[in-house]
Amino acid sequence: MINTILWTVVTVTALGLVLAVVLFLVAKRFRVEEDPRIDEVEKVMPGANCGGCGFAGCRAFAEATVKAASPDENFCPVGGNEVMAKVASILGFEAKEKAPMVAVVRCNGTCGNRPKTNEYGGYPSCKVKAALYSGDTGCAFGCLGCGDCVAACSFGALSMDSATGLPVVDEAKCTGCGACSKACPKGVIELRAKGPRGMRVYVSCINKDKGPAAKKACAAACIGCGICAKTCTHDAIVVADNIAYIDFAKCKLCRECEAMCPTGAIHGTGFPKPLDKDAVKERIRKRNEAAKAAAAEKKEVEQ
Amino acid sequence: MKRTFSIGGIHPHDSKISRECEIKPLAIPPTVYIAMGQHIGAPAKPVVAVGDKVKVGQVIAEPGGFVSAFIHSSVSGTVKSIGPRKDLAGNPQLTVEIAVEGDEWLETIDRTPDLVTSIPEDGKAIIEKIRLGGIVGLGGATFPTHVKLSPPPGSKCEMLIINGCECEPYLTSDYRTLLERGEEVVVGAALIAKALGGVPCTFGIEENKPEAIAHIREIIAKLAAADKAYSGLSVMSLKKRYPQGGEKQLIDAVMHRQVGSGGLPISVGAVVQNVATALASYEAVQKGKPLFENSVTVTGECFPGQANVMVRVGTPLSFIIDQLGGVPEDAVKIISGGPMMGRAIANLDAATLKGTGGLLFLTAAQTVRKEASACIRCGRCADACPMGLEPFLLRKLALAGDMDSLESNAVADCIECGCCLYSCPANIPLLDIIRLAKADVMKIMRARAAEAKAKAEAAKAAEEAKKSESNG
Question: What is the DSSP string of B166-207?
Fold first, then answer.
């Protein structure tokens, strides 16, 4: 009896030792050299694997960034400048400060503003709906309201507002990864600079129809009248395809366009005080008069 | 035993309530809106300008690519505008708007009712006339007919099948065409068979249309006795089963040949054309009349004014409905086409296209979508799929976004017939999800094919450059 046990123990131990040596040799011979910095970089990443950076996940981002010739081209939108500074210190390059981004829903086609023209009874997915037809309102461009963006968000920053039928972005949770903007078949959601203390001005409409058609479909539509572009003193607004677009890099947050917009398509958010439209309009009027007077004076002098 | 296709299929009630309604010409609307995307493939390019006077049958747009077709004016009048206009689905599409003045046809169109039975000897000339006539497949897919009649080099057509199944419930325009214009359809079929190199031609008609089967048999016998050119024509009565009118299903039913995954009908030596396409081909070749009107079934249990009407292309749907008595009060859904493959209309101001085959009114009780429950893997969808796919699996893969597995499970073969959705006891919207996945997968496949082509061309160019270098 004891003999059997002894033999078993000896055989198994011997076998273990031999295999250990084999494994050791194999590991030494076929060792994959890996940059230890990849692990270090991965450790400081947020670990959400959201794909917002354009890579398959945090590990893929780390690998690409370590290998890249100019690592500062890659940017983790979720971790932001803080994480990028850490990554930069590991890899020894200078991190470029980037303005934090936030998802902005550029549609104000609420149930009140945008009356329904038909009833959609199909599968509740924006993608399916968009493939079938232009949507259950007169606007072929705006939010379809089935919440594909909500499903795409891995941070729980989006929710559908049942009163308006539009998605709402929780700025505190939004990391600006852009998953929602990719999921939206209509391209309603845009990533815009968060702005100082969260102050932003944007056109909340992407309807490219001509003015009357857009207005008929939605009371809050941008009709492409161009008043905002004329008002803007910072050259930040472009009107193309019957739609105004505010360049957030140029916008100085004066909110004059917001006051002048006839349909209320321009929204300002994050401002401490509500906009006093009349005061702003008065200011613009006075400025225009002064400019006119100056021009007339100049003409007179020339003559 | 009567023939039918070998796998899948369902038996919806045929509901052909407008089968006794003769095809009547509808009044010409005051304005027509002719969209440039009348067919599958590249949209046509307008060749008229605002203010131009046009006659019925005049070319107003040229093909925008190889797979594209001419578009002719369906009315006489003045071009009022050329610009985007909302189509059936509410999406903007380039449209030519023509204000109607009288009804003046081009002099080249033969408007006499005489039947021209002599078949031209030159097949190429027939195809050219069909091309110039702007003929597209009127079975629903609106694929340009001349492209289908020019098989790629290396493939040979052995049989022409004329599709008279009309397996979609409710639709009766093909049936009425067979009964009322059978002679012209048969001559049209003989013309197409000639264009394909004098191949034999079989009419595939479902057994629920015995009058049509007998009528066409009679006409063929009569014509064959007078002219040898008609001896290759025959009629096959098929067992009723949806979707027998699908190209691949019909080939299976008639020829007992199965088109492989991703293959074209020509790979098994078959070309399928619809009854209405045969009629349009007859008119284009023998009468010089391009395709600018088509028959539309307007029907539904709740619609008292049901009819089969001959409509000029570009007639607003609202005009057709008003002419026939207006939208019934209890109709909640109007479908363009049949109930199985048709699409709900979001915009009644939209105009008809060459391929518009039906307007169907459905009541709330008929359109209700029952709440979906969990898949119990009963496999009924897989049994019903006429393409031999596994819809439950495709849905699961689509929801997971697994494009590779979707491709290897042949999602691109889906013909969107809706049999899976029809047969699902759990009311799962299988087709809605699969259709989207199919579109995504096909986009990927096309991009890959384009990339491979560009790569091959670049390699070829590089090789040639090398050759010329070594030669020089």
Answer: --SSS--HHHHHHHHSHHHHHHHHHHHHHHTTS--EEEEEET
pLDDT (tens digit per residue) in B181-227 = 999 999 999 999 999 999 999 999 999 999 999 999 999 999 999 98
Average model confidence (pLDDT) across chain A? 90
Question: What ipTM does this complex have?
Answer: 0.84
Run of H or E residues at B96: strand B92-100
Torsion angle in degrees (nearest 10) through CA of B54, B57, B59, B61: 100
CATH architecture entry for A36-91: Orthogonal Bundle (1.10)
DSSP A6-56: HHHHHHHHHHHHHHHHHHHHHHHHTPPP--HHHHHHHHHS------TTSSS
Among B91, B343, B367, whose Cβ lies nearest the Cβ of A121? B367
Residue type, A119: E
The secondary element (H helix, E strand) that includes residue B295 is strand B293-299
Q: Which residues of chain B have pLDDT under 70?
A: 1, 472
Q: What is the largest CA-CA distance in chain A?
A: 126
Question: What is the DSSP secondary-structure string of B55-89?
Answer: -BT-EEEE-SSSS---EE-SS-EEEEEEEEEE-TT
Contact A133 B89 (CB under 8 A): yes
CATH 3.40.50.11540 maps onto chain B at 123-286
Q: Which residues contact B125 (CB under 8 A, 6 or more apart)?
A: none
pTM: predicted TM-score of the whole model, two decimal places: 0.85
Contact list in A for residue B367 (CB cut-off 8 A) is 121
Question: Which residues of chain B approach chain A closer than 8 Å at the C-beta?
Answer: 86, 88-92, 332, 343-344, 346-347, 367, 369, 429, 432-433, 435-436, 439
Element (H, E) at A294: helix A277-302
Identical fold between A109-192 and A195-303 = yes
Partner-chain contact A122 B433, CB within 8 Å: no
Q: How close B83 comes to chain A (CA, Å)?
A: 12
CATH for the stretch A195-303: 3.30.70.20
Phi, psi of A64 (to 5 degrees): -65, -40
Residue A133 has its nearest CB partner, among B90, B367, B369, at B90
Q: What is the pLDDT of residues B152-188, one digit of tens each?
A: 888 889 999 999 999 999 999 999 999 999 999 999 9
Residue B179 · residue B166 · CB < 8 Å: no
Residue A163 token pair: 């009163």
Q: Name the residue ranges covered by the structural domains of chain A.
A: 36-91, 109-192, 195-303
Yes or no: domain A109-192 corresponds to CATH 3.30.70.20: yes
Cβ of B432 within 8 Å of Cβ of A128? The answer is: yes
Which of B344, B347, B436 lies at the smallest CB-CB distance from A131? B436
Which CATH architecture is the domain B123-286 placed in?
Answer: 3-Layer(aba) Sandwich (3.40)
Can you tell me which residue has the tokens 């619809």?
A: B274
**Exposed e or buried b per residue across B156-195, where buried means at least 16 C-beta atoms within 10 angstroms of its C-beta:** ebebbbbbbbbbbbbbbbbbbbbbebbbbbbbbbbbbbbb
